[in-house]
């Protein structure tokens, strides 16, 4: 199971705006292209573990500062789908 967590975390740490938009569409989540770019730029290169609740909460708080609380909630929905 740990290998899947590593793969998903690596994807989050290297995600592009286009990939984020693709996942948003797949999970029926609304994110604008501009916010996707800002979020992807923020996440790229970070070593986050979305399976860790406190790490994920920190990331969502930072995303809320970048793109607003509504967008942060939408991104959290995507992260939640990845962790199921």
UniProtKB/TrEMBL annotation:
It comes from the Bacteria. InterPro entries: DUF2624. It holds the Pfam family DUF2624. Keywords: Plasmid. This is DUF2624 domain-containing protein. It comes from Robertmurraya mangrovi.
């Amino acid at each position: 199971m740990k290998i899947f967590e590593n793969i998903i975390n690596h994807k989050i740490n290297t995600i592009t705006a286009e990939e984020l938009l693709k996942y948003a569409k797949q999970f029926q989540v609304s994110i604008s292209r501009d916010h996707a770019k800002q979020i992807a730029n923020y996440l790229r290169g970070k070593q986050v573990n979305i399976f860790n609740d406190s790490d994920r909460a920190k990331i969502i708080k930072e995303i809320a500062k970048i793109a607003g609380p509504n967008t942060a909630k939408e991104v959290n929905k995507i992260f939640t789908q990845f962790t199921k």
